Amino acid sequence: MSANDASEATPTPSGTVAQVLRPIRKRLIIAGTLAAVGSMLTLVPLAGIAHVAQLVLAPQAADNWAQVQANVWQVAGLSLLSLLLGMLLVSLGESLAHLADNHITRHLRRAITRRLARVPLGWFSSRASGEVKQVMQDDVATLHSLTAHFYTTVGRCFGAVAISTLYLFAMDWRMALVSLLPFPLFLLFFRRATKASGKNLQAFGAGMARINNAVVEFINGTPVVKAFGIEGKAHGSYREAVDAFATAFTDFTRPLVSGIANAHAMLTPVAVLGVVLGFGTLFCALGWIAPAGLLPFALVAPGLCAPLLLLSYVMHDLQHATGAAQRLHALLQTPVLETLPGGPARLAADAPIHVEHLVYGYDGQAPVLDDISFTLEPGTVTAIVGASGAGKSTLARLLLRFFDPCAGRICIGNTDLRQIDSRQLYRHIGFVLQDVRLVHASLRDNIALGRPSASQQEIEHAARLANIHSRILALPRGYDSVIGEDAQLSGGELQRVSIARAVLLDPPVLVLDEATAAADAENEVQIQQALSRFAKGRTVLVIAHRLDTVMHADRIIVLDNGHIREQGSHHQLLARNDHYARLWALGGYQQAMQEAQAPC
Ligand code: ADP
Prior knowledge:
- The chain has helices at residues 3-6, 13-20, 25-57, 65-118, 121-125, 129-142, 144-171, 173-179, 182-198, 201-227, 231-234, 236-266, 269-285, 295-300, 305-332, 392-399, 422-428, 443-447, 456-465, 469-473, 491-505, 521-535, 570-576, 579-587, 589-597, and strands at 353-360, 369-376, 381-385, 407-412, 415-416, 429-433, 509-513, 539-543, 555-560, 563-568.
- By secondary structure, it is α/β, with parallel strands linked by helices.
- Helix 2 (13-20) crosses helix 15 (305-332), helix 6 (129-142) runs antiparallel to helix 15 and helix 7 (144-171) packs antiparallel against helix 8 (173-179).
- The radius of gyration is 36 Å and the shape is elongated.
- Bound molecules: adenosine-5'-diphosphate.
């Protein structure tokens, strides 16, 4: 199934399951058929035993004992052959189903990875990692019961029921009817129980997802929470998720447990044998059947309990697997960022970036950016400043195509951002954001993430420029140290690694969003130095909270509540004595700078 296939609408749960399993449908049908035929053959010995008993117990058997013996050997041989062949077919079916399961697991994980590689980067910021982990790991694993066991179990059940029913009806239709009576009753009870709990399955799945998210939050937040001594308050969301899950779990299991208990009571070999013998005695008394004629029913009918019981277990798992398949399908349908046709093969490094009448609102809400227009001239530094919530980070993310604008456009030269393939875009626009994302790999691999073919010299050069080279060398395994294992780095140091990564790509445009936010004073100086070296000669857009860090920018754009309030150089804006001048005065920068310059 390709990602595009996955985006077709599938209204029903079974339709969703069919669509998720489409790549292995044929294999599953063959596996089910092999299991069905195999299960039919494995039941032949039961009929064989009944037949042998009838041969031996026949009144005229003693008269022709040699013939009886020959017949008994023939039946025994055939039974054994059937048993062995049946076992072989069942085992082939099971192996095929497990191979198919292996295939679909790999296929789905790859399809999800491919899909996630195409979703907007902004999708990840608004998505809890627990939710993605549940689908990629847990739900793919849950599907195992459906792919590896469901179809073969259904096949085995179908085979057993079909051959037994045919055989018993061929023996005596009245006895067959009463002997098989417990089974439809079982199915009736079972269906009612699963239907009742099935209604609560979505709530059960949602509760599970909430717990996953809450656990991630709980673990990530524990150090902060403990430090401030607010465990009671801060762990509230985890407790709420646990309580909600407990309720959903009870609603889900209550109808299931009592219903399934009733159903299972109907499906014990003793109960079935009781029915056979009870009615058999009556039918013998009525002269409808000879006592020896009861033997096939006493042997074959109870034998149906095991496969049907197994079916009831996989039906129970099927509900979970259906929920998992639905979540997998939904993830595979996540809207992707399409690249529109008409993009150029190469982007000119000195192309200006035009932001034209940009409008953006999160999730269809009121715009947080409205009618924003400006141009980033090549080789200049433009700073975006404004109060918290003014829309600075949103603007930076739009420039990096974390998401597409609701109206207006951003162009590199004459090319709309939407026409540029993401690899090409991120080679052209590098970024260093407040939220540093590094992968669990060596420092070398982290720096070379965007250019795995980079040489050690190039990597070291980038690290030197980012002021992190000597810190890396001080680690026991240097560039081979793995982040989080033998490389325990501070927030500011991690930020410098992320700068080295951007440096290595050597992009002509750079977006910096509060890059020093996680750093202490010493790190801040190091980061600022690294960024100034890196920014030289490039087109830079810098988002800043502290105005003194961007006072030398070529142009400062002041954002206020999603609108451009004013723009110009630091001195021009101070001279206007408006919004920027007020922010500057509020920040107390003038005073701080005078104090810093005053002789001791
Ligand atoms: P700034 O960077 O200037 O502090 P932001 O761009 O982060 O401002 O936010 C601008 C507005 O958009 C704020 O009102 C903020 O609450 C809202 N916002 C930011 N991120 C999201 C999001 N993922 N979903 C919904 N609203 C958001």
